[in-house]
Design a protein that fits this description.
heterodimer, A: about 210 residues, alpha+beta, five-stranded antiparallel sheet, 6 helices, B: about 160 residues, five-stranded mixed sheet, 3 helices
Chain lengths: ~210, ~160
């Protein structure tokens, strides 16, 4: 198979592999979150989606909704980013687990809340990537996480712009998180670069 | 009518339309307005330069500052706007994550610089701007009087 140039060129079995990778990775991330919080965490089956830029925003949320986000860049064999979108309800549930029942305003989080959310995002990203690197035998480096609270659309402009130079679509592997039986929207988006996928499929003997 | 401009898109309206683009992050919204004819264009660009983008012939000209702005301006002229009276207001170009790898690209700043260069090349004066910083912006443009309203999370609205 020729090297991948566009996400649209992925075949069905490659998409299956990516779904499985998303599944294993996010399973690991949810286990990490469970042991951190002592709560039962369930993560939905991931979906692999190729989305146009506008779609990536409209299908995952509403553009003007205020959300918190943890962004982690990946380096070495697999490049791209993990973007964890934390909606108000989920942030409140998670922070209540750590600091006792509380109401929060995403736009006025305390330093303590911000570090807790950043740390959770970081732990989830690490366990996600650890699963993928042991599965595929690839090295994945993770950069220091960054945190922001803003309109969902404005946050999404970051991956959209970084990947916008090579095409019109974004590959998102995403899923929802359930905590204590309550389904809350919190997207973990794994957004790999197209050449990283070639590396990954090569390692898995799929080329 | 509310005309909604997506990412890598531009639209032109006339009164009583409102032209809007939601949640600009590091992207830049360019409002061009001809007060004589009340023709108003809003472009939402993602990237500074089309050259070297590697897109070849399939290039999406609405994505880049250096192609989207002249295209929208030309379309406004075709619709009857007068070259001498078109002015600009710009917003966006924020750095959404102020630490880590993504802020190293300085993409917001580069987008704003490229937008200014494109406007300068077309001799379109910039009347007002709300650019940079670390927050997202929704832009409403009113062709009736050229007013531009900017809405941000937790910061309310302001007119430029």
């Amino acid at each position: 198979m020729a090297a991948l140039k566009k996400f649209e060129d992925l075949n069905a079995s490659q998409i299956d592999v990516l779904t499985e990778i998303g599944n294993i990775g996010s399973g690991n991330a949810s286990t990490a979150l469970s042991s951190l919080t002592g709560k039962e965490i369930v993560i939905s089956m991931p979906e692999v989606k190729f989305l146009g830029f506008q779609e990536a925003i409209e299908k995952n949320g509403s553009p003007e909704e205020t959300v918190a986000a943890v962004l982690v860049h990946l380096k070495d064999d697999i490049r791209g980013m993990i973007l964890i979108i934390v909606e108000h309800e989920f942030a409140e549930a998670i922070l209540s687990v750590f600091f006792g029942e509380k109401k929060i305003d995403l736009l006025n989080l305390s330093d303590e809340d911000i570090s807790a959310l950043t740390e959770i995002g970081s732990i989830m990203s690490h366990s996600y990537m650890t699963a993928i690197s042991s599965l595929a035998g690839v090295n994945i480096g993770i950069e220091t996480p960054s945190f922001a609270v803003d309109m969902f659309g404005a946050i999404m402009s970051v991956p959209i712009i970084e990947f916008g130079e090579i095409g019109e679509k974004l590959l998102c592997i995403d899923k929802f998180i359930e905590i204590n039986g309550v389904k809350m929207k919190s997207n973990i988006l794994l957004i790999p670069t197209v050449d990283s996928l070639s590396v990954l499929f090569g390692k898995l003997g799929m080329e | 009518m509310n005309l909604s401009v997506g990412i890598s898109d531009w639209k032109i309206g006339k009164p009583p339309d409102v032209v809007v683009t939601y949640a600009l992050g590091s992207c830049v919204g360019i409002c061009l307005y001809d007060k004589k004819t009340k023709i108003a264009g809003l472009s939402h660009i993602m990237l500074p330069e089309s050259t070297g983008s590697g897109e070849g012939s399939g290039l999406n000209r609405m994505k880049f500052a250096d192609t989207a702005i002249p295209d929208m301006f030309n379309k406004m002229l075709i619709m009857g706007a007068s070259r001498a009276t078109v002015t600009a207001k710009i917003a966006g170009g924020a750095t959404m994550f102020t630490t880590g790898a993504s802020c190293r690209f300085n993409i917001g700043e580069r987008n704003v610089a490229s937008v200014k260069a494109a406007l300068h090349a077309l001799r379109i004066p910039i009347l007002a701007q709300d650019t940079g910083a670390d927050y997202g912006r929704t832009v409403f443009m009113y062709p009736e009087d050229g007013k531009v309203t900017i809405k941000s999370a937790g910061k309310g609205e302001k007119n430029i």
